[in-house]
Amino acid sequence: MKNILKLIILFCFIFTFQVKAVSKDITLTVISDAHIKADKKENSLTPSIDKLLKAIEQTNVDSSDYVVFLGDNVQNANRIDIAMFAKIINRLNKPYYAVMGNRDIGKTKGVDKKEYYRIINKFSKNKISKLPCYKRADDFIFIFLSGVNETFPTYKGYYKAYELEFLDKTLEKFKDKKAVVFQHFPVVAPGEDEMRSTYKPENYLETLKKHDNVLAVVSGHYHRENVIESDGIKHISVGALCDGGEYEQIKIYDNNDGTYSITATILSVQ
Question: What 3-state class would DSSP assign to 191?
Fold first, then answer.
C-alpha cells in the first residue's frame, strides 16, 4: 500500500513538472509614457513619480513573468530624471526591459541613445543596453526596436532601413519561436493623430508580412489603448501612465493546436 501511495505521489509530481515545463503561456506587464519629472525646487514626490512607484508595487505582487517599459519614461531628456526612473524600476522583483521614446533622448541636451542606456543600466538591472536588440524569453523571442530620431526632437517615429533589416533577420533566425515586438511608435495607429504618426509604416508592415511567427506588436506614444488585428498580428496600443495611471497586462495563451490567444487588460494604479 505504501509503495502504491509513493508511486501516485511521484506520478503527480512528474505530471505537474511536465505541465509546467511544456507550458507556453506568458504574462507581461507593459507600462508606457510614464513621463516622470522630479520637482527639484520642492524636492517632493510628483504625481508622475507616485504613479510609477505604485505601478511597480502592484506589479511586484501580480502574476507577470516580464515587465516592459515602452518609452517616454521621462518628461524631458536629462540625466537626473533618467537616473531616477532607473532607480525606481530597479525595485521590480522580475525581469524588465526599457525601450526609449522621443522624450527620453536629445543630443542637444547631451543625452543620446548610448548615454540613455549608460544611465539606465548604471542604476538598474535593465536587460537592454542598446536598440535594436532581441532577448529570448521562455518559448518566445522578444524584439525591441527604437524608431527614435536622435538628431533633432520630433514626435514622429521612423524605423530606418537598418532596424527593419534587423527585424527581418531576427524573425528569420528564430522562425521556430513566436515573436513579440516592443517599441514606442505604433505602425498601426490606434487613432488619428498626425503629430504622432510614424513615417512610412508600410515599409515596416511589408517586413512583417514576410514572416508568420509574429504574435503581437506592442507600442505606446499615442496615450490611448487599442487593439487592432492586421494580417493576423495584434497591434496593441498601451495608454499613458502619466494620464490616468493606466498600464496593461498582456497574456499570451498556447491553445495547444498551433495557435495562440492574446488578451490585453487595462490596469490602473490604486
Answer: coil
